[in-house]
# Entry
Amino acid sequence: KQPPTNLKRKAKRVYFSKRLALELSQLDTPLREQYLRTVESCSTLIVQEGKKLISKYCNNRWCTTCNNIRTAKLINGYEPVVAKMNEPYFVTLTRVTVNRSELKEAINGRIKSLTKVIRSIRRKGIACNGIRKLECTYNIEEDKYHPHFHLIVDGYDMAQTIVKKWILETRNQNIKIDEQGQHIRPVDDDSLKELFKYTTKLVAKDRSLCLPALDHIFQCMYGKRTFQPFGNVRMIKEDIDEIQSQEYDIEPVETAIYQWRGNDWYDMVSGRCLSGYIPSDTMHRLFEKMVT
# Structure
């Protein structure tokens, strides 16, 4: 029986995450131990019981394996909330890009500004309900960082109010802002996936990996709550459980233990591979184009 496609996709995510974390751990970084935890322990051992696969996860943001689980958890948790909104809108709030040395302060300042904007609305007795996500991207050509917010809020008028107050708050701090950089659009079927899929793009538009920039983003966002509900929206914790199990359409066995070796898991008794995943030439080229 051929391994299911979703198991091969999981192996691909594990391969990418471990390879990326290993490369990041070679930098002079305070996150070295956390990167190595992804390499050494995230999905390294899999226990099969029947059709169920059980493994340990690292819960780190650079780990696409954990991000996949986190995204599904947050979508499942918040989808009913958004479905009950009368008129949900997707809002993007931005300011100008910043240099490497300015990033940490910019992230802290933008979190404070958005908190102030929402509080100012609620102090007037106006319902302001929604979810916000902090995201940061990097432009390799300009060597600039772009921390910004995506929100889902209830009501077009509320979306407009938040944008107007965000612009005013930015100007009051004597920070440049491009009014056209703020966006409002109705929520569609892809909005929740867009909101929860990642906190930074790991791969640049030219299909390269800029390791120092990624590490700097992860350092500046470390310990920060990237997803935050407000108003009457109940918080869904973004952390995932250390131990997770998932059922796959595979040949059931009473018990088997597989260990990750290079690009797949192998049965520690028989040596049989679990997923059959083989990294593509595209994947190999991705790591050949790393910027260190």
Observations:
- The radius of gyration is 21 Å.
